[in-house]
Amino acid sequence: MNTPICFSKYFVDKYNLRSFDNVLKSKVFSYDDSTFCLYLLKSETSISSLTKELIQIFSLMKSNLKSKCKEDFTQYFNQLTQKVGLEEVDKEFIFKCSYQALCDIVPFNFFGNYENKKLFRCMVHDIIFSMKMQHLLPEKYLKTWDFDILPWRNISYTILHKILLWLLTAILPSIICLTFYVTTCKLDSDENKLIYFWKSQWQSFCDKKISKMLFSNVMEKFEPYCLGKKIKRNLPIAKRLDLKKLIKEVPKLHLVLKPNYDCRPIVKYRNDELNKRQKYRIKEKLQLLKLLTGNQQHKIETAYPKLHSKWLELNKPKLYFIKTDLSDAFGSINTDKMMKILHENYLNYHKTESNMVLKKRVSEQFRNLVAELRKPLLVRFGSTIFRWKEGLVQGYKYSPALSELYYSYMDKKYLTEHLKVDNRKIKMFFRVVDDYLYITDCFDDAIAFLSKISNYRNVNYSKTAVNFQHPSIRYSEDITFIGYSYNTVTLEVSRVNSIFYGQICYKINFTSAVENISKFIENRIGQSGIQISSHLFNLQYNSEELIWKHVFTTFCFSGNKFCTILAIACCEKDMKNYLPLYKKRVTVRITNAILANLMMAKPKLIEFVYCINHFRYLSWLALYYNAQKTWKCSNLIPLIKIELAKSNCLFGKWREHARFISSNGDVQNHAIKEICRRSDLRAIVKKMDRLPYGFEVYNKKKF
């Protein structure tokens, strides 16, 4: 009964809902009272416990619904004038209108008093303002429902739960979907935030985008499945059913919004429908593509320290950084050329491989792969089936592997000179999917790279950046690449600030695991989504001040997640019970992870002098700043201050304590006062007097 429910899945990305008849058949309105109650409760046992008053309320609810749904609830949203083009609709407006529609359907007698109605209003509000795939606990709202008044006196909780579930998973989503299209967008950092658009505007937007793709020959209608309604009606019933089944098996094409209201077409497959054998076959083909692609390039975490050492050895020469990416990397692939590359790589493998058993197995897998790739790639938008023609579609199971095969070949063809290792020079090349980074100590080499990369027909020059003057390319002293920011003067490495932009609640997936809130918090506030690597925590090229800044920022990110989860999913009086989880997962485990990476990458000649309490203090300081500003979390502040006082050997009263602690909790070294009160570290920590720039704590009003 206390199972979390994802209410948003009933109205997110629902494009084909045309009429309320698609949700509730008109024959339901002709049911007598007992049949309608059976339809609502799905149990004859539950019906026997209903009072006459409750049956009358359900009957009135049915008649109200019949009268209000005639215009598909559009009459409730007419007061706001629609503008031309795609426009985000205010959620508060949608909530007020949707709640009014529900109040006109559900009589006041159903609630019994204003307190119960207020709880219902709160549920509707939280559903409309919820996030993608956010699971809510009905028990959280209904535990204060007043069952001591009519009509709920002597009525079980199960009946109330079923009725509310019907209202909130069938009626409310219909009210929303018949007027609005709800989706997520890549418009900002809030990737799980739901955006509401007028349905007519969204349909117009989609029609234009689909027409543009048809006109530019990206895809075409697949005639065998695109029969007209008149032709379909004349087909035998068996053939119509087969056609309907085939259409349902075709994956849906979704248009995912990007900045400036551009969109990216993405195909969404239903992997849950694949059996184990099918999944194994796909895995086999992906491994084959990886084999034919050839050696994968080394990781930047291992290559960058070598580059830095060479830079020091050559007396810190000027380095030239180039960062670029490819626009529409999948869609710009020439599929005919891709198939030729695939065959060429296979023939090269066949010539060099001496194991006959392996050759035979790879040959069979290759034939199966080619046969599958030659099949028409079908996608469905609405009820229309299209065949994809130009490039690879994002979301297709083989697209990433085929893209890697294609661009690896292109790199070898056009960038051969830049891929070669020369021990006399500083040179580093990296490509991750469609992002390129090239570092060299030769200006002519950098210019040559820019010239060669122009052979790719889809270079995105608006996102290209260099650290030297160029007539047509943006200059930047800090170059960003796959979540890292590189200072091109000092070669220091930091996180990209944009990682922390936006409300943190939209970066947390509130799945059904929220049922066990302790386990949910424990899993979410650890290292999930937080970069803790030897590339970042590296004393070879990062100063100690920057390392401590990274430590504090890491704790701030975890503290923000912790406070946000508590504010959304917990009662204020229960929050203090979860502080031990923060201590376990953040203060202890994240500290251990940071230290492990620091010591692994630390050069032998560099000393890193610290006390374990320095890390503890920063972890609680980060939580203190988050709790100060996060809604509902201010009651944690006195408890956090106690923990701060315990670990404050840097500024507070001196006490004997452990400097290092082993994994089993034993004291390895006792603290040394001179180390604990390092003046240089005190100066660094004094600067940490607020949350880092770009951090946003949970704000219920904004949410």
From TrEMBL:
<feature type="transmembrane region" description="Helical">
    <location>
        <begin position="163"/>
        <end position="182"/>
    </location>
</feature>
<dbReference type="GO" id="GO:0046872">
    <property type="term" value="F:metal ion binding"/>
</dbReference>
<comment type="function">
    <text>Telomerase is a ribonucleoprotein enzyme essential for the replication of chromosome termini in most eukaryotes. It elongates telomeres. It is a reverse transcriptase that adds simple sequence repeats to chromosome ends by copying a template sequence within the RNA component of the enzyme.</text>
</comment>
<dbReference type="InterPro" id="IPR003545">
    <property type="entry name" value="Telomerase_RT"/>
</dbReference>
<keyword id="KW-1133">Transmembrane helix</keyword>
<dbReference type="InterPro" id="IPR021891">
    <property type="entry name" value="Telomerase_RBD"/>
</dbReference>
<keyword id="KW-0808">Transferase</keyword>
<dbReference type="GO" id="GO:0000781">
    <property type="term" value="C:chromosome, telomeric region"/>
</dbReference>
<keyword id="KW-0539">Nucleus</keyword>
<keyword id="KW-0695">RNA-directed DNA polymerase</keyword>
<keyword id="KW-0479">Metal-binding</keyword>
<dbReference type="GO" id="GO:0000333">
    <property type="term" value="C:telomerase catalytic core complex"/>
</dbReference>
<dbReference type="GO" id="GO:0007004">
    <property type="term" value="P:telomere maintenance via telomerase"/>
</dbReference>
<dbReference type="InterPro" id="IPR000477">
    <property type="entry name" value="RT_dom"/>
</dbReference>
<dbReference type="InterPro" id="IPR043502">
    <property type="entry name" value="DNA/RNA_pol_sf"/>
</dbReference>
<keyword id="KW-0158">Chromosome</keyword>
<feature type="domain" description="Reverse transcriptase">
    <location>
        <begin position="237"/>
        <end position="486"/>
    </location>
</feature>
<keyword id="KW-0779">Telomere</keyword>
<dbReference type="Pfam" id="PF12009">
    <property type="entry name" value="Telomerase_RBD"/>
</dbReference>
<dbReference type="GO" id="GO:0003720">
    <property type="term" value="F:telomerase activity"/>
</dbReference>
<dbReference type="GO" id="GO:0042162">
    <property type="term" value="F:telomeric DNA binding"/>
</dbReference>
<keyword id="KW-0460">Magnesium</keyword>
<dbReference type="GO" id="GO:0070034">
    <property type="term" value="F:telomerase RNA binding"/>
</dbReference>
<keyword id="KW-0812">Transmembrane</keyword>
<keyword id="KW-0548">Nucleotidyltransferase</keyword>
<keyword id="KW-0472">Membrane</keyword>
<protein>
    <recommendedName>
        <fullName>Telomerase reverse transcriptase</fullName>
        <ecNumber>2.7.7.49</ecNumber>
    </recommendedName>
</protein>
<comment type="similarity">
    <text>Belongs to the reverse transcriptase family. Telomerase subfamily.</text>
</comment>
